[in-house]
Amino acid sequence: MPAEQQPPARLVRFAPFKSRAEPPFWLDHSSRKLNELRLDESGSELAGHFGAGGSSEIEMRYDASSGGQSSSGGDEGGGARAARRNERVRAGGTVHSLNTVESFKRLDKNRFLNDAALSSILDCCRPSAGEEESDPNEALVRTACVTHCDLKLNRTVYWFAYPALSPRRGRAVAYSALGRAQSRLGDVWDGGRCRRLAGAFHSFRIEQESSGSGVVWCPPYFILLTDDDGGVTRCMSLSKSNYGSLSDEERTTAMFGFVDPNSSTAGEESNELQPVGWTLRNLVAYLSLGLGLGGSDRRFLSYRSSTALRRIELDNEELGGEESHGFEDLGRDDGGIGRSLLLSITIPLAVDYQWPATTDQASSSATTHEYKCVGWELNQNNKPGPRSVDLRPLVSPAHLSRQANDLNLRLMKWRALPSLDVGMLSRLKVLLLGAGTLGCNVARTLLGWGVRNMTFVDGGRVSYSNPVRQSLFTVDDCREGGKFKATAAAEALSSIAGPDVRAEGVVLMIPMPGHPYGDAEAKGVAADIKRLHSLVDEHDVVFLLTDTRESRWLPTVACLATDTPLINSALGLDGWLVMRHGPSSTLLEKHREDTGDDNGDGGGTKQHPERLGCYFCGDVVAPDNSTRDRTLDQQCTVTRPGLAPIAAGMA
């Protein structure tokens, strides 16, 4: 057997993590991709967390509240108590959301993994001269993820990784050839020593939380000091300075502990060597590269617990004083620590982590050539590969409808119109005067721009000639004399866009100059004028989409009186007109003034020194009954089906 190879039976087997991302995590990530990240592929903060062997699977959990140190993981009573996660071990990293599935497939996964964590691991193991030592608890426990979100299909493809520094081929981490490679703690230690270990680790966690700030997580690594008889004295934080402060005798007897998420008991019956937690990989590399222990045999403690680690409160009164820091009062209960493992491992030499340099010209530095990370997660087929999640079953149909309606607008903010205020459009209240060919087309166009509040005003009924030209109506609307256009259009709009759209139909004939009214009709006409004025005043913008010239006069006057912007769209025999009436300020400024949302610039006034001209400004003839002498072909133009979408789009 070549000298470089080692007996495979003595190699340390590492149990890889399995990701468990909660539904809120993916929903939050999709929302952030759409609204914040957009085209950015550089990566954003990611954090996972795991416990100490509390489940049958080695899970790295991700949820929407574990993305950073500022997250509390949910309110559990408020204040500092809500910020405690010290029963879990945190793994920090980055998630990169790629813009196309092709870029996801083409991604150089090995280089991505090295770029994600290699520098932080090496900086921790080999800090540059003058640099402060980084915390191994943060630098050595890392996670990374690459994703592609299909925002239309609500489907996400993802691949998690847990970067670990890997020795080169033939130099794998192996158990010591001397002594017992692996022992169950409960088999070699009595109950008293196990309880003292549990108490020492309990006190160690309290010390770590006392010295920290913000969200406190359970430390993944520690140094375990023992006396001459093998009894536990205390746990201390893993660092070069702490290890350097130990005496020669303490260094000889010290163990290096790590919180092991693996709770598997496979191999206990047959005395086979059990797999241990993935986090041991970087701990061994740190001892070799950072502490210079390569080539030596060292003892490790795979710290496991049959139950989840308890949360610890810092209030001394709640702790019951210093005496409550230990576990002596628990009697025979050692917290399941007896399931932990004692390991005897030969630490690889520092040079064993250096891979032969490659001729990859795209690499940015020689460091990328010399060291490599491994750690891509296995998929459901137990092979390296990505997974996918379908988010459609996780959200309500109403949410899916609303998200799909706004998708195109929010995508426009990525590149075409970054300043587009989608929220303002969705809150805008629009009054559509006329529910005919123009009214239907304008409503559908506004719907595409994210407008969700529309009121139709029309006094006519749907006839059999309307559905082919007016897109909100069907033949069923024409039966039994026809439905009122205003209510039928509002119902159709709601059925098209879902419950998120608030559409209302008001049956009202707009009073027109040149159309005589009898004494019996005078009272109703006065009520219609008052109602029209009230509708104009209640809305943010008015679209004037009626059939005749004289029907535009009263709405024009009402908009002038209420200082409401008006968009006038009219169709002729072979042309169209689109113009805006009202104040010279933009519609956005008008809306911000009305709502008081002026971003603190002291706006909020409705005084407009300049005013745009209106539809009637150039007229020398008063409005009259324009349909009196028109034949049928002049009243219903043959060009209207083609011109209406053009005019509606311009409006």
Features of this protein?
651 residues, alpha/beta, seven-stranded mixed beta sheet, 20 helices, rod-shaped
Question: Your description of this structure?
Answer:
This protein has 651 residues and is α/β, with parallel strands linked by helices. The protein is built from 20 helices and 26 strands. The strands form 6 sheets. Strands 9, 10, 12, 13, 14, 16 and 17 form a 7-stranded mixed beta sheet that branches. It has a 7-stranded mixed beta sheet with strand order 22-21-20-23-24-25-26, sandwiched between helices. α15 links the parallel β21 and β22. The chain is rod-shaped and about 115 Å long.
Short structural summary:
The protein has 651 residues and is of the alpha/beta class. The chain has 20 helices and 26 strands.
Q: What would you report as the Rg, rounded to the nearest angstrom?
A: 36 Å
How many separate helices? 20
* SS elements, strand count: 26
Low-confidence stretches: 66-83, 314-332, 361-368, 599-609
The helix/strand class is: alpha/beta
Largest sheet: 7 strands, mixed
What value does the average pLDDT take? Answer: 81
The percent range for helix content is 25-40%
Secondary-structure blueprint:
Blueprint: E1 14-15, E2 18-21, H1 23-37, E3 44-50, E4 59-62, E5 84-85, E6 89-98, H2 101-106, H3 109-125, H4 136-139, E7 142-150, E8 155-165, E9 174-175, E10 182-184, H5 185-188, H6 191-211, E11 216-217, E12 221-226, E13 232-237, H7 240-244, H8 248-253, E14 255-259, E15 276-277, H9 280-289, E16 297-303, H10 316-319, E17 341-346, H11 366-370, E18 373-376, E19 387-390, H12 397-412, H13 422-427, E20 429-433, H14 437-448, E21 453-458, H15 485-497, E22 502-507, H16 519-538, E23 541-544, H17 553-562, E24 566-571, E25 576-583, H18 587-595, E26 611-612, H19 632-635, H20 640-650
Parallel strand pairs: 1-15, 2-4, 5-11, 6-7, 14-16, 20-21, 20-23, 21-22, 23-24
Antiparallel strand pairs: 3-6, 7-8, 8-18, 8-19, 9-17, 10-17, 12-13, 12-14, 16-17, 24-25, 25-26
